[in-house]
Amino acid sequence: xxxxxxxxxxxxxxxxxxxxxNYLESKCEAIFQEMRRCCARYPKGRSxxxxxxxxxxxxxxxxxxxxxxxxxL
Length: 73
Hints:
The chain has helices spanning 8-20, 29-41, 56-63. Helix 1 packs antiparallel against helix 2. By secondary structure, the chain is mainly α. It has 3 helices and no strands.
């Protein structure tokens, strides 16, 4: 029998929250934090709900401007 996904409940809560708040992620930040904590607790692959869900640190790194690229003028 397959193991229960430990973070699925947070994924479902995120969907409900986003739907209830016109998909404004800022309104659901507390649930996103819970999901990040849950995903950090389990090894990669343990929770299918975490696949594609990035840690807050990785999100910030991806959003930060690339210091090695210079804009073309």
